[in-house]
Inverse folding.
C-alpha cells in the first residue's frame, strides 16, 4: 500500500475514534430498534401520543412503522409508511448531554423522502428533542405544511421567557425570526440526505445552533438567550412526528462538531 494512502487511512481511523469518544447515543436500526450505544436507556418507546408519554411501553408498537431491512443509508432503516401521530421516542436522560447551566452537542441523522410527494397535510418534524413542546425548551427540524415544502431548524428555550404572552407561532414574527430556513432543500425520494444540528451554550445566555445538510452549512440561529429547563423523566428524542419516509443512523454527540467534522461525518 502506498505511504500516502496509509497516512490517509490512519488519519480517518483516528478521526473516527475521536468522534466515537464524544458519542452519547447511536441507533443504526441494523439490529432492531434498540440503540447500538447509549449512555441512558437503549430502548425505543411507543405511546398513544406525547400527552401519554409516561405510559409508554418499550418497543415499537405501530402498524405503519417498522424496520426496513437493507434499505438504510447503511444496513437497515426505520420506515414510516403513513403519517405518524403516535409518540415514538428514545428517552433523553443521559442520551442527550443536557445541562441546565448550559449544554453543547450535535445531533446527526439521515432522511430519505420526497417532501412534496410523500408527506401528508400539515407540518412534519422528523425529530424533536424536548420534554414539553416544539416551542418550549426544544430543538427540532421540520418541513413546512405548504408546498413547495421548506425545511427549518428551530431552537427555543423556556417558553415563558422568550414568549411570555404565549403568542401562537403563526401570529408571532419573533418565532419566524428565530428559525433557520432552507427554501430549496435537497431531499429526494431514493436519495439519502444528511442532517446535522450542532449547538453550543444552550441555557447559558449565549446559545446558538447551526444547521447542515449534506455537509454544508445552511445557516446559524440568532443568539439564544433564554434558559432551557427540562424534566428529565419526560425528556425525549422524538422521532417522526407526522413523518412519512425513511430515517437512519441517529447519533448524538456531547460536543458541537466543526464544519470540517460535519463534512467528514457525511462520508
Amino acid at each position: 500500500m502506498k505511504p500516502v494512502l496509509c497516512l490517509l487511512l490512519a488519519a480517518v481511523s483516528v478521526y473516527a475514534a475521536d468522534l466515537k469518544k464524544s458519542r452519547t447515543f447511536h441507533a443504526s436500526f441494523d439490529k432492531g430498534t434498540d440503540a447500538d450505544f447509549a449512555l441512558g436507556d437503549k430502548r425505543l418507546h411507543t405511546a398513544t401520543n406525547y400527552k401519554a408519554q409516561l405510559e409508554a411501553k418499550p418497543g415499537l408498537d405501530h402498524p405503519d412503522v417498522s424496520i426496513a431491512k437493507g434499505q438504510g443509508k447503511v444496513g437497515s432503516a426505520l420506515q414510516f409508511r403513513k403519517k405518524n401521530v403516535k409518540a415514538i421516542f428514545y428517552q433523553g436522560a443521559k442520551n442527550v448531554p443536557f445541562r441546565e447551566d448550559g449544554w453543547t452537542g450535535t445531533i446527526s441523522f439521515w432522511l430519505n423522502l420526497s417532501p412534496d410527494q410523500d408527506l401528508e397535510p400539515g407540518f412534519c418534524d422528523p425529530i424533536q428533542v424536548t420534554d414539553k413542546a416544539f416551542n418550549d425548551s426544544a430543538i427540532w427540524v421540520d418541513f413546512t405544511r405548504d408546498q413547495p415544502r421548506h425545511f427549518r431548524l428551530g431552537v427555543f428555550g423556556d417558553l415563558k421567557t422568550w414568549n411570555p404572552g404565549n403568542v401562537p407561532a403563526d401570529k408571532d414574527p419573533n418565532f419566524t425570526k428565530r428559525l433557520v430556513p432552507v427554501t430549496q432543500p435537497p431531499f429526494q425520494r431514493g436519495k439519502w440526505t444528511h442532517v446535522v444540528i450542532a449547538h453550543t451554550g444552550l441555557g447559558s445566555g449565549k446559545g446558538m445552533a447551526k444547521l447542515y445538510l449534506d455537509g454544508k452549512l445552511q445557516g446559524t440561529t440568532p443568539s439564544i438567550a433564554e434558559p432551557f429547563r427540562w424534566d428529565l423523566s419526560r425528556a425525549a428524542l422524538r422521532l417522526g412526528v407526522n413523518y412519512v419516509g425513511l430515517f437512519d443512523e441517529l447519533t448524538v454527540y456531547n460536543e458541537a462538531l466543526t464544519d470540517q467534522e460535519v463534512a467528514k461525518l457525511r462520508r
In short: The mean pLDDT is 93. The first strand starts at residue 23 and ends at 27.
